[in-house]
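Collaborator request, handled under Task 6.
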Amino acid sequence: MPKILHISDLHFGPAYLPEAGEALQAIAPSLYPDVIVISGDFTQRAKRQQFEEARRFVDRLPKVPMLLIPGNHDVPLYRVAERWLRPHDLYRELICPDLNPVLQLDGLILVGIDSTSPRRTISNGRVHQDQLERCAEIFAEMPPETMRIVVAHHHFAPCPDFIHDRTMPKARRAIDSFVEQGVEMILGGHLHRSYIGNSLDFFPGTNRDRGITIVQCGTTTSSRGRGRERNENTFNLIDIGPRLLTVIHHLYFEKIGEFAPISQHLFPRMGGPCGPAHLAAANLFTTTAS
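Structure tokens returned to the collaborator:
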């Protein structure tokens, strides 16, 4: 089964940290990813030069299938007319023409959702009913044993720390819909700090035995880390096995100029022999390295 390199919030522009960027480029080939996911915010202010720099960075990563989605920083903030009339023009031209991409591999499907909603909100994001229905249609065509992953920039669940972030409006509706669709994992960014856990930590849902593993990536290459990851850079490596999902969390160590793993999180597969009921107890399978 495939291995996913999950990075996020590159923020090319004034916030970008070249040292962290080069450290990621150095370690990425040695991780042997089968898929790379970048969950939004390629730029700081959606300027052409920033998108061009981000494009060059992406092109240097290992040549494997990628799923790329936009973040709220990838639409113009102060160029109001552009944000209203053609908010994703530069992103489509230089990063990815599809705002809601789908990537299918053997035994795995990833569905990207554009949560930016630039005409209604800048920071908090939106996922609309038609996007949920599209996900349902795509997943319905997959064999039951297919691993289903949703990727969105904005967060569906708050990070469990002292910073109180608002989740997307109607996040519970989306989570309930994804549970019914058999989604096993959600990948995201935006918070600039990491969270690896389960949707049942926050939302009781209609099925107490069918939570979704949530993997939020911090900022991989910028100075905009928050909370416990203030001034830190992180990414996740996700190994999808027939029985377990393994998430290895990596942190950039400035003194040595390298990323290194700092924790490992194990979650039973939804359809694995452990049974979906054990997903609610996902934290029991978490190990942390000092």
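The cover message to the collaborator said: "The domain at 3-288 is CATH 3.60.21.10 (Purple Acid Phosphatase; chain A, domain 2). Residues 272-290 have pLDDT under 50 and may be disordered. Please let us know whether this matches your experimental observations."
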